[in-house]
Automatic annotation (TrEMBL):
Pfam families: Pyridox_ox_2. It comes from the Bacteria. Gene3D superfamilies: Electron Transport, Fmn-binding Protein, Chain A. InterPro entries: Pyridox_Oxase-rel, Split_barrel_FMN-bd. This is Pyridoxamine 5'-phosphate oxidase family protein.
Length: 211
């Protein structure tokens, strides 16, 4: 892989080779963006994902052209980011955000048959723990319409970068408030569909308890 894709050139002090930090970010977030090139044109597709040890599990429709392209062997980049706060400095130029981000690169492997079933269950359990035991199994038609893929997480295939802390101390006198506005996310009160049956299930409570 090209060195410029695996080495931070701007603010390299914000980078980290810590696999623990990478795993924490991937476990905190639910959505990333898959990027690839199809017939010379850039494609970017937002996808739900789940980390499963040393791989990312991805899924999508068999009718999605970009996903058919990458399962046929095209390289991808997968980006995940979390915004943890807005950094308010003495000027808009100096203002920023606290964030954690990662870009993973490589080739996905198309999962089939039992591997696909296990991967899709794992992804569902990652998002809604216990939901697979509360609902019916997927039908053969639903299986046929769904791609499941894995992206290996290997040394040298990812970049992690973060910013923490407050604004830098200004070099000259100023007359403005400065600091950090922390940003957090929570799940709200469950809103049942008109046709919903029964009480809010354990899987939804487990989802809310994550945040």
């Amino acid at each position: 892989m090209r060195p410029d894709l695996t080495t931070l050139t701007r603010k390299p002090d914000r980078g980290s080779s810590s696999r623990d930090r990478l795993d924490t970010l991937l476990d905190d977030e639910l959505v990333g963006t898959l990027a690839t090139v199809v017939d010379g044109d850039p494609w970017a597709v937002p996808l739900l994902f789940a980390r499963d040890d040393d791989r990312l599990l991805l899924h999508g429709s068999t009718g999605a052209g970009a996903l058919r392209h990458v399962t046929a062997g095209a390289p991808i980049a997968f980006c995940v980011i979390a915004i943890d706060g807005v950094v308010v400095a003495e000027s808009t130029f100096e203002s920023s955000a606290n964030y954690r981000s990662a870009v993973l690169r490589g080739h996905v492997r198309n999962l089939r048959d039992d591997e696909r079933a296990r991967a899709l269950d794992r992804l569902s359990e990652r998002i809604l723990p216990g939901r697979t035991t509360e609902v019916r199994p997927s039908t053969p038609k639903e299986w046929a319409a769904t791609l499941a893929m894995e992206l290996p997480i290997t040394d040298g295939s990812w970049l992690y970068k973060e910013r923490t802390g407050g604004p830098g101390e200004p070099a000259e006198e100023h007359q403005a408030w400065c600091g950090v506005v922390p940003m957090t996310r929570t799940f709200g009160e469950p809103e049942p569909a008109p046709w919903s049956v029964g009480l809010v299930p354990a899987s939804v409570h487990a989802l809310r308890n994550r945040r």
